[in-house]
Specification:
single chain; Metallo-beta-lactamase, Chain A; 7-stranded mixed sheet; 9 helices; elongated
């Protein structure tokens, strides 16, 4: 397996970090976990095409984890990509329909591209056939505990505390061959997540707050610090730990050094804070 970080940031607009998005190549397929703002551009920068993506899994439906979904679907459709298989919590289908349904936000654009004679000529010149189909990803709404056996890889999930009851929030475990990758989504530490990450080869965990950074009590429980995440991962037998979802103020040299030192105290050279376009073999 191979992980490519496409977005390691937060909702804040930031040139250094796009919002959340992570590409995993496993079993000959390309699997995208979340698709926040800027992720499709990073995907292309990394040398991949939107049409290459086989599967999309949404950990939850905060905007910074799905803002580029519309761009991904449209861009893959524009170049004749395969039918995407998209999984995520409710109301994923409703959101998709409001974007790409017959009366959705992009219906006027799609009708122009499908029905306008000059656009049909452009489509034929690319090798397409008329009538051009409407973009139609296969949408599956899932709940925590969802499992999938895709043949060459398998996926499982659990609930993680983040934005309930407003949003369903999940972490995912992907197993391929003898290797295991876990993506926490946006997660407070909990027993279900501990079980999911047990003995993982690589854990990619969000980090929204640094050691010593003040937080209200409820927010503190939902936003573990680098030290807390490292201790949690070490106790679960994780072999390699990556932190992501860094905010703008966390990237100053002194704060970055503090976070890296907290990780290395337990993981030595097997832990770091990721950057956009980093790649890791699993």
């Amino acid at each position: 397996m191979k992980l490519t970080v496409l977005g390691s940031g937060s909702p804040e607009p930031y040139a250094r970090r796009a919002s959340s998005g992570y590409l995993v190549e496993a079993g000959g397929e390309k699997i995208l976990f979340d698709c926040g703002g800027g992720v499709v551009s990073r995907l292309i920068e990394a040398g991949h095409s939107p049409a290459d993506i086989d599967w999309v899994f949404f950990s939850h439906l905060h905007s910074d984890h799905m803002m580029d979904y519309a761009r991904l679907v449209h861009a893959a459709w524009e170049i004749g990509g395969k039918r995407l298989k998209v999984f995520g919590p409710r109301p994923l289908q409703h959101i998709h329909d409001r974007l790409f349904g017959p009366d959705g936000a992009f219906a006027h654009d799609l009708h122009a591209r499908i029905d306008f004679a000059p656009s049909q000529e452009v489509w034929r010149a690319r090798g397409g056939e008329v009538p051009r189909p409407w973009p139609s990803p296969e949408i599956t709404e899932i709940e925590p505990g969802f499992e999938l056996d895709a043949g060459r890889w398998c996926l499982s999930s659990c609930s993680v505390p983040h934005a309930q009851p407003h949003l369903t929030c999940m972490a995912f475990r992907l197993e391929c061959g003898q290797k295991t990758f876990v993506y926490s989504g946006d997660a407070g530490l909990c027993d279900d997540l501990s079980a999911l990450v047990r003995d993982a080869d690589l854990l990619l965990h969000w980090c929204y707050r640094l050691d010593g950074e003040p937080a209200q009590p409820l927010m503190a429980r939902m936003t573990p610090t680098p030290t807390e995440i490292a201790e949690f991962a070490k106790s679960a037998g994780v072999r390699r730990l990556l932190l992501t979802h860094f905010r703008v103020h966390m990237d100053s040299p002194d704060k970055m050094a503090s976070a890296q030192n907290a990780l290395r105290s337990l993981f030595h050279d097997k832990a770091t804070v990721v950057e956009d376009l980093d790649t890791y073999e699993i």
